[in-house]
Design goal:
The chain is α+β, with helices and mostly antiparallel strands. It has a single domain, classed as Alpha-Beta Plaits. 39% of the residues lie in helices and 25% in strands. It is built from 3 helices and 4 strands. A 4-stranded antiparallel sheet has the order 2-3-1-4, covered by helices on one side. β2 and β3 form a beta hairpin. The termini are far apart.
Length: 102
């Protein structure tokens, strides 16, 4: 009995790093060519329909016709690459936002 409990404890410790990696994450995407009134809602809807996405907010288009999409998601179910693929497929190429210095 003690051996079984010990084996479960060791197994639990080994699996903990895998469980800790999965969870909620946030990414900010720069989405291009989204200047029209309907573009922001299309981008938002596209991202919201991806399995694992729990929240999306989209900024107003800037002078370059780009929007910033802030996406909260379960990283065990989806990834920024899947989000970029989805928006690009709808005609809005995207990339992960790079932090600005200043």
């Amino acid at each position: 009995m003690k051996i079984q409990i010990g084996m479960f404890a060791v197994l639990g410790m080994l699996l903990t790093p895998f469980a800790a990696r999965a969870g909620q994450a946030t990414v900010i995407l720069d989405v291009h060519h989204a200047s029209c009134v309907l573009c922001g809602p299309i981008v938002k809807s596209t991202l919201a329909h991806i399995k694992g996405v729990s929240g999306v907010s989209v900024s107003q288009a800037d002078g370059n016709a780009d929007v910033m999409a802030t996406v909260t998601y379960d990283d065990a179910q989806t990834s920024p690459a899947a989000m970029i693929k989805a928006t690009t497929g709808r005609g809005y190429p995207a990339e992960i936002s790079k932090p600005t210095n200043g």
